[in-house]
Every structure is written in structure tokens, then in C-alpha cells.
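Propose amino acids for all 481 sites.
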């Protein structure tokens, strides 16, 4: 481990460097410094980098580290036996400042982060997403790695940073500030994914743009979803009233215009401390094909974790700063019903259909070599996630037109017809038992009440009521000039 601890006075530096994470620190504490002056080692660093890297010097000069006389050497010092140690101007340093290094002062924050889902983001090797980047869209043409993965997936998820034989960092894995980066010192994560070096601005980390580098795009559009929501609209309209430079930044006390991503998932409330476990207040997991309560997998594995009910209680405590309990409860009723609808009507049946084709030997074992695999992937990985995230963050257009509308179109107009093609092909090839088994599964799915409109078996009174409402709608608009 890089030995920086001996340079620090832990109590004083924690008061200064964790000021952005504490909800109860006095203004006087802001004036404390761990050192009376900058260390001799950092003075040498600064003398050179002020000329060679003026932007880095300026960023550090605006940071709380500067105010605490914490300089380059305090963070970059390394031991000779560190895997990524290099000798530079008479000192042993490392380019990478890892969470293990940050934990010399920010030990609680690093411990919370290490327990979070973010910390596991770099372990995507073998996932469908990574297979797409390495094989389908990419090729191993960059020193044995795929440029698509190196420049795409890994820059958000993180990669294993490798040190080459000559001591240089492997360019297929560095630079990288992915949130789940696997560091040479054995630690996981990159604090700089959110706290951009070398200023580490708390204002920047609190703004929604900090999350937008990764939580963006067709399959995880949380930033766009937030921008559409009333929360996002209020934030941008009233950003000058957000008091984002506040040391404690407690919603309902220091600001009330709107929440940001940090407000809901990390920041302090009147009841809750700051947390660096971003899943600590999430009750559903909206990532997989079929959503589960956030603690479901751990329970299946016999683990004891914070329950989804406790997590929801904590998120509700954030909402409580601005909303009544009845409104919060009603929101969760709406949100839960949307997730359950998506699961029941589309995700569980779709997953069952894909599994049936595999079990009956009607598909190959190669991923993404058949159109139906792409159809299913779009349905849950893109459109299904958008619908669920839209409901979670109150963005109706993402719930509807970018979400469930596209899920439904994909399910009825593509997945089912493509599934039936496999059944017909099996019949032609004499695989009658497999064809019958697959046909039976689809028939059972379409017998569910929510699919009866599609098969023409909807109860007559339901059809007539809808036709009456449609006729009245047309009449209203027909009478307008």
C-alpha cells in the first residue's frame, strides 16, 4: 500500500477533507489545517507543475486540499514495492490515486463506496454488454483488447488497470476513471469518477451532470429522465437558489428548490447522514430483464443485508423534506404498479419464451447471432429500462413513448412473430415435440387477461366500453373548428 498516512494528522485532516460529507460541522472547522505549511516534497512538485501543468496547479489551488496544505506528494506518494510505483524527480510516486489512498483520510466514505453496486461495476467481463463491445461491435485489435470496450464500456464501468513489464501503465486500461476500476494496489473504484481531480469540487459532484457521463443513453437514461422531470426542471430554473457551496447541504434546510441525483441517493437529510453507497436508498433493481426488490438476490444467497423496506424508508425521508407522506406513499404505489406491470405483462413472459427456445434446442448457443436475441435485448435492456427509470424518477414521456409503448410494439410485433417462426421451422424439420412445447408456452402466455385484446378474446363488455369511449373522443374533436 502507498504509505501516505504518516504524513497526515488524521483528526484535523478529517475535519477539513470530509467537510463536504458531514452534516454537522461548524464554520470554525473550515479554518483548521492539518499542516502549518505545505510539505517540502509537495513544494518541489508545485514549483515544477505550476509551470508545466498550469491548469492542474490552478485546479488544486481552488481545492480544499490546497487550503489544508495537502499537496501532490501527500496523495501520490508510493512505496517501492507498489505495482504501479515509478521514480520521478527523486521521489517514488504513483500516477493513480486509488480509493485505498483516499481512505487515509476518507476512510468512512471509501468503506461505504466499497459496499456499493458502483464498486462492482468493473466486473462486467462475461456480461452480454461486454460481449457486444468485444465481439459483436468490436475485435481484439488493440494489444489484445477491443477498442470498443476500451473507449466505451470500460470508461464508465472501469477496467483492470495493468502495469506493463517496463513499469508503464497499459494504454488499453489507462487512462480510466470508471466507477468500478480495478486498481493495481488491489482496491476497487475511482473517486475521481465523481470528484474530478484536482479540484474535487463539492458543487460539481452535487450537480446532475456529474452522473450524466455514465447514466445517459438508450439503456440507462437517468440524466435525460431527470432533466424531463419536475425535479430537473426546477433545478435548472432555480440553480442560483440551490446553495450548493454549503458545507452540510441538507435538503429542506440549506435548499428547497429541487433535489439532484446526489440529494436523493447520497446527501444528508435532517434524519440521514451522507452515504457513498448509492444503492442504500433504492428499493427496486431496475437493471435486469425482470426487476426484483433490491435485497432479493442477497436473500436467495443467504445473506443478511439492509432490506428494501428500510431502503425505501430512507428514500422517503429525502422526499419528506418537500412532500407530504400521503403524496410519497401514492407515488410509490404508482411506481410499484408500473414495475409490476412491466414484469408481469412483458418481461417474465419474454424471458420464458427465450428460455423455451433454448431448452427445446431451437436456438444456437452463440449470443446475438439470431435476430430474436436482438429483439429481446432491445425490449428489456433498452426500452424496458427506460420505462422503469421513467416511472422511478417521474418522467412520463420516458415511461410511455420511450418506454412501455416501445416495449409493447417490440413484444407483439417482433418477439411473438419471430418466436412463431421458430415453431414453424421446428415443425418443418420434424421436431414436433419441441414445436408443440414452444407453442403451448406462448398459448399460456396469451391466455392471460392483459393479452386477450391481442388474441381477439377480450370480454365483449370491455371491448364495447373502449369503443364507446373512442367514439366519444372522436365526436368531441369533430365538433371543434
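Proposal:
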Amino acid at each position: 500500500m502507498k504509505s501516505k498516512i504518516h504524513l497526515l494528522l488524521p483528526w484535523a485532516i478529517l475535519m477539513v477533507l470530509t467537510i463536504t460529507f458531514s452534516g454537522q460541522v461548524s464554520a470554525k472547522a473550515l479554518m483548521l489545517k492539518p499542516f502549518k505549511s505545505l510539505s517540502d516534497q509537495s513544494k518541489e512538485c508545485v514549483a515544477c507543475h505550476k509551470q508545466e501543468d498550469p491548469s492542474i496547479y490552478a485546479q488544486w489551488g481552488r481545492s480544499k486540499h490546497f487550503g489544508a496544505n495537502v499537496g501532490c506528494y501527500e496523495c501520490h506518494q508510493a512505496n517501492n514495492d507498489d505495482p504501479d510505483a515509478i521514480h520521478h524527480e527523486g521521489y517514488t510516486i504513483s500516477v493513480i490515486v486509488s480509493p485505498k489512498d483516499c481512505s487515509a483520510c476518507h476512510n468512512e466514505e471509501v468503506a461505504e463506496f466499497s459496499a456499493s453496486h458502483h464498486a462492482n461495476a468493473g466486473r462486467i467481463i462475461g456480461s452480454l454488454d461486454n460481449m457486444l463491445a468485444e465481439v459483436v461491435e468490436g475485435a481484439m485489435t488493440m494489444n489484445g483488447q477491443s477498442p470498443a470496450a476500451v473507449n466505451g464500456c470500460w470508461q464508465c464501468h472501469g477496467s483492470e488497470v495493468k502495469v506493463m513489464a517496463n513499469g508503464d501503465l497499459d494504454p488499453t486500461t489507462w487512462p480510466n476513471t470508471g466507477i468500478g476500476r480495478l486498481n493495481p494496489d488491489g482496491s476497487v473504484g475511482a473517486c475521481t469518477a465523481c470528484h474530478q481531480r484536482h479540484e474535487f469540487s463539492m458543487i460539481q459532484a452535487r450537480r446532475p451532470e456529474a452522473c450524466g457521463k455514465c447514466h445517459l443513453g438508450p439503456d440507462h437514461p437517468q440524466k435525460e429522465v431527470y432533466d424531463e422531470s419536475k425535479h430537473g426542471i426546477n433545478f435548472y430554473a432555480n440553480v442560483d437558489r440551490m446553495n450548493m457551496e454549503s458545507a452540510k447541504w441538507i435538503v429542506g434546510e440549506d435548499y428547497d428548490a429541487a433535489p439532484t441525483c446526489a440529494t436523493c441517493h447520497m446527501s444528508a437529510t435532517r434524519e440521514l447522514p451522507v452515504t457513498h453507497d448509492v444503492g442504500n436508498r433504492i428499493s427496486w433493481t431496475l437493471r435486469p430483464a425482470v426487476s426484483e426488490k433490491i435485497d432479493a438476490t442477497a436473500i436467495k444467497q443467504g445473506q443478511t443485508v439492509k432490506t428494501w423496506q428500510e431502503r425505501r424508508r430512507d428514500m422517503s425521508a429525502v422526499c419528506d423534506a418537500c412532500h407530504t407522506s400521503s403524496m410519497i406513499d401514492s407515488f410509490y404505489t404508482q411506481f410499484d404498479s408500473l414495475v409490476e406491470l412491466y414484469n408481469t405483462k412483458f418481461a417474465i413472459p419474454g424471458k420464458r419464451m427465450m428460455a423455451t427456445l433454448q431448452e427445446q434446442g431451437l436456438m444456437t448457443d452463440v449470443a446475438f447471432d439470431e435476430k430474436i436475441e436482438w429483439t429481446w435485448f432491445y425490449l428489456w435492456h433498452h426500452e424496458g429500462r427506460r420505462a422503469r427509470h421513467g416511472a422511478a424518477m417521474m418522467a412520463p414521456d420516458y415511461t410511455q413513448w420511450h418506454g412501455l409503448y416501445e416495449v409493447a410494439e417490440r413484444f407483439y410485433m417482433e418477439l411473438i412473430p419471430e418466436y412463431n417462426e421458430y415453431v414453424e421451422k421446428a415443425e418443418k424439420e420434424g421436431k414436433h415435440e419441441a414445436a408443440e412445447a414452444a407453442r403451448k408456452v406462448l398459448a399460456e402466455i396469451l391466455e392471460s387477461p392483459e393479452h386477450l385484446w391481442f388474441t381477439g378474446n377480450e370480454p365483449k363488455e370491455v371491448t364495447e366500453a373502449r369503443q364507446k369511449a373512442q367514439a366519444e373522443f372522436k365526436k368531441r374533436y369533430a365538433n371543434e373548428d
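The CA atoms of residues 178 and 327 lie 37 Å apart. Strands lie at 86-88, 91-93, 284-285, 292-293.
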